[in-house]
Design a protein that fits this description.
mainly alpha, two-stranded antiparallel ribbon, 3 helices, 3% strand
Length: 123
């Protein structure tokens, strides 16, 4: 369902037709529009990867700060903040996975997969 939402949003950005309920890219999509979908997905993947790298750097810096600044009277970072950052990283990882799947489906379709229909296996 999450992947379906991502694909629908990407289709809207790239002016695609609505996606059907069976998680297939509809047949009437032109190669140009499918290439746009693939390119948009790959650009978003790159942006998310860049953001995740910065989150990793932030966590490393905070860890170093905690080692030097945290003692019994001072707290460098609360547990709630750590939980929120962990949740943000997890959400970005899910999004990255969905975008990569969308890009790979687009490439598969461009290569002529399944006579114009792509069925996703979400198992």
């Amino acid at each position: 369902m999450f992947n379906q939402s991502i694909l629908s949003a990407l289709q809207e950005i790239a002016e695609f037709n609505d996606i059907n309920n069976y998680k297939q890219i509809p047949v009437p999509i032109s190669k140009e529009k499918l290439t746009d979908l693939c390119n948009e997905s790959e650009m978003l993947c790159e942006s998310i990867e860049y953001g995740l790298m910065h989150l990793g750097d932030l966590m490393q810096t905070l860890g170093n700060l905690a080692d030097t600044e945290q003692d019994f009277t001072r707290e460098a970072m609360s547990n709630d903040n750590v939980k929120h950052i962990g949740g943000l990283i997890k959400a970005n990882a899910y999004l990255l996975n969905a975008l990569r799947e969308t890009a790979s489906l687009s490439e598969y379709y461009l290569a002529g997969g399944l006579d114009g229909e792509i069925e996703r296996n979400d198992d």
